[in-house]
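Entry type: protein chain
Record version: 2
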Amino acid sequence: MMDEHRHEHDPAAKQESKSPPSRGEELDAAGKSLSDALRISFAILKVIMIIVVIAFLASGFKTVAQDERALVLRFGKIRGVGEDAILGPGAHWVLPYPIDELVRIPVGKNVNLAVNTFWYKETREDILGPGPKPRRLIPEKLNPVDEGYCLTGSQRRAAPAVERVALPAQKAIPAGQQRLWSDDGSDYNIVHTKWQINYQITGVEQFFRNVHVEDVKPGQVYFDVMTESITPLLKSVVENAVVNALVRCSIDEAILSAGTIGQRVHQLVQQKLDELESGIRVTQVQLVDVKWPKQVDEAFQAFFTASQGSQQAISEARTYADNMLTQTAGRVAEPLYQALMNEKTTEEQREPLWMEVAGNAQDTMAQAQTYRTRVVERAKANAEYLLGLLPEYRKRPQIIAQGIYLDVIQEVLKNAQEKFILDKSERAREQEFRVMINRDATPRQKQNQPQAATN
């Protein structure tokens, strides 16, 4: 206690107690501080590394939408083979980039593509709508640099044509709409067409392997990049199919049979895409519009006016013929006519048709049957009458014959207004008998008046 009290009051002792630490002590304190800092830094770094690893692994969770299918690229190559390589809708985990890369391909979207390569250059008047155009606005010649067009065959060329490639069963053309295609002939016509195609991606792996799609940059959507990248390919295939199809038909068929030609183009487009193993399926090919060159518009309008008139006349004639057949004999008129014209048809085969006859023929047959019955009954009555007279006729034939003659004469002259009797005597031969054809009808009217008054 005394030492402590002495040190507190002794300045020398106080100065001695506040002297700086030695060099060794300073190094120990710095090392300890550095060690603590490094330990804390390594702990924080471990936490950060764990978070980074978790985030890295979590980035491998990907989602595929309902209208999409996905492929996993491991170092740029497709992982898996066949159906195993395709990921369906839902959540999936893949190794994060750059080891694995998930490529989503839209398979449920129906994409529209307009092909206007063969359409003419539209002016302001064309865009405003149809109607008569001033002659000065119509160019005299077609400029192939600015305007698109396609060639069609001539009428002579399309006539003897033969369809060479059968359409698929699901795209079969009805019998009444079938068109003929040909390769012979030399004359061509010009036609402008607009096309619209709809397509889907059905073969995911084929599409990725064989169809080039530009790399998707950050901020871009794969669907937009994909459609823009494959548009030149599809346009080229459609244009080639249109040229191939239209050159094998006439311009009349191109204008009037849009549905048939559309099916032909559909077939050719799908056939080419299948050859390329593109994985693209064309769902629809539509000929949106077809137009002849503006330079010959007046001639085509006159032609179609005449064609429509002829078609209307043909339709009216067919309607009239059908109505007349129905009115004459009913629905069996046509088969009954064919049966009557065919000499090999027996009466047994015609009998069922006669039983179904209706209309005027049925009335005529009923009247004929009535007339037949009446004639037969009259003939029977006359036969019975003559058979009754036969015994008397055998006894006195001249008297009976004269009586029959007088009865017939009386029946014949019963409704005659005037009667003239010529005597067979010798004196009558010297007389001249004349009958006036255009006689005055007044005596006949006077003769009928008393009878009318009496009645």
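Comment: Residues 112 and 198 are 5 Å apart (CA to CA).
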